TrEMBL record:
Source organism: Actinacidiphila oryziradicis
A GO biological process held by the record: biotin biosynthetic process
Name of the protein: Adenosylmethionine-8-amino-7-oxononanoate aminotransferase
Keyword terms of this UniProt record: Aminotransferase, Biotin biosynthesis, Cytoplasm, Pyridoxal phosphate, S-adenosyl-L-methionine, Transferase
Record EC number: 2.6.1.62
A Pfam family recorded for this sequence: Aminotran_3
Quaternary structure, from the entry: Homodimer.
Positions bearing N6-(pyridoxal phosphate)lysine: 287
């Protein structure tokens, strides 16, 4: 075992990593050796040592949907540096500061009306916890404590803490182990696939029936709008979101949209709810909020929800993470949103969408490929079987691209700054990975 201070060589660091460091969804000790990243700039990750003959990889993942402007961006670096020289953190209880206030006001401005109040959380999962707490507390404050369950559709993903796990897909998802331990929620069938597919009246009736039947015990419906991300990378018709909005209004149930993956332009509109022309009672954002620089998320709610909570016996929202509103994260989030809206981001997403459609068309002919789909800056190749993750990842790296396939999926959501040649290269690597996996 090398001493920690001696372990600056790649082999030493990887040995320490294996011995001590837990990785996402991984065993301990780790079975797959991670790649050691030395630095990142633009859309390229630089490895400490070559892997499959490559020292640099084009990033096809945006670090799990977050790094929309790429890495080491001068404007975002400057936002962090400038804030660092003023203060990196102060507690948010009893104190406030410009970066958090500016960010909250900006989020209210760019999200659908009538979202108006912002709870800054330190991760997406925590923002979902807060959103759920808001909804349950709203009904409790109104004297209807029986309304404490959630309805969602199958195939979703909302994070890895307790309440979010309870609304992730119960089968085939990552949290099946905990059925029987988690709060028991109400599951509707997964939405029929296809963004452009005409809405299925039988499915719409199913949604209405489920919400109606459980209305007395439902605090809220929570779904990912238009794209179900980590639950299976599937797309559905925005029409179903309009049905949810109507049924929720009819039956006095709140609607929570989890835009943590879809927010900030990824699906072609700034927020996916815009495809449906609806607005939720509570909305979660995260991932791309800080341009992938620091961990921050937010739960936004309407005045109706906030006022409902304020009318209760306990009129406060009892939630207050230590690092709530962190100034560094808030400052870089403001800069990231300004950077996004200061350019024709929709055109860039369309450009990438066109590149993905063209480049991934070849995958449709690969043996073992079941479906190829593209929406906004998201490209998905679904296999007929579980992907061999190690083989698929190796094939992508050999092609000079970083991908992270899972389940039966090889997919990409590149940074919006990815040039056409790099988009083509990512597509070629997705096809290679699909063939190898
Ligand atoms: C990633 C994600 C989350 C969880 O966010 P974390 O920051 O990883 O806790 C929740 N919902 C959706 C839709 C996500 O994609």
């Amino acid at each position: 075992m090398p001493e920690p201070h001696l372990a600056h060589d790649t082999a030493g660091l990887l040995a320490l990593d294996r011995e001590h460091v837990w990785h996402p969804y991984g065993p301990m000790p780790g079975r797959q050796q991670p790649l050691l990243v030395e630095s990142a700039a633009g859309v390229r990750l630089r490895l400490a040592e070559p892997a499959e003959g490559r020292r640099e990889l084009v990033d096809g993942m945006s670090s799990w949907w977050s790094a929309i402007h790429g890495y080491n961006h001068p404007v975002l670096n400057e936002a962090v540096r400038g804030q660092l020289d003023r203060m990196s953190h102060v507690m948010f209880g009893g104190l406030t500061h410009e970066p958090a206030v500016r960010l909250a006001a900006r989020l209210v401005e760019i999200t659908p009306e009538p979202l108006r109040h912002v709870f800054l959380a330190d991760s997406g999962s925590v923002s979902v916890e807060v959103a759920v707490k808001m909804c349950l507390q709203y009904w409790r404050s109104l004297g209807r404590p029986a309304k404490q369950r959630l309805l969602t559709w199958r195939g979703g993903y909302h994070g890895d803490t307790w309440q979010p796990m309870s609304v992730c897909d119960p089968d085939g998802g990552m949290h099946g182990l905990w059925s029987g331990v988690l709060p028991r929620q109400v599951f509707a069938d997964a939405p029929p696939p296809g963004f452009d597919a005409g809405p299925d009246p039988a499915y719409e009736a199913h949604l209405r029936e489920m919400i109606g039947r459980h209305a007395d015990e439902l605090a809220a419906v929570i779904v990912e709008p238009v794209v179900q991300g980590a639950g299976g990378m599937s797309f559905h018709s925005p029409a179903y979101l309009r049905v949810l909005r109507e049924a929720c209004d009819e039956h006095e149930v709140l609607l929570v949209l989890d835009e943590i993956a879809t927010g900030f332009g990824r699906t072609g509109t700034l927020f996916a709810a815009e495809h449906a022309g609806i607005s939720p009672d509570v909305m979660c954002v995260g991932k791309a909020l800080t341009g992938g620089y620091l961990t921050m998320a937010a739960a936004l709610c309407t005045t109706r929800v906030a006022e409902g909570i304020a009318r209760g016996e306990v009129p406060v929202l009892a939630h207050g993470p230590t690092f709530m509103g962190n100034p560094l994260a808030a400052a870089v989030a403001c800069a990231s949103v300004d950077l996004l809206l200061g350019q024709d981001w929709a055109l860039e997403v369309k450009r990438i969408e066109a590149g993905l459609r063209e480049g991934l068309a070849a995958a449709a002919g690969v043996p073992g490929v079941k479906d190829v789909r593209v929406l906004g800056a998201i490209g998905v190749v679904q296999l007929e079987h579980e992907v061999d993750m190690a083989a698929a990842t190796r094939a992508a790296v050999r092609a000079g691209v970083w991908l992270r396939p899972f389940r039966d999926l090889v997919y990409t959501m590149p940074p919006y700054v990815t040039g056409n040649e790099d988009v083509a290269r990512i597509c070629a690597s997705v096809c290679d990975a699909a063939a190898a996996g």
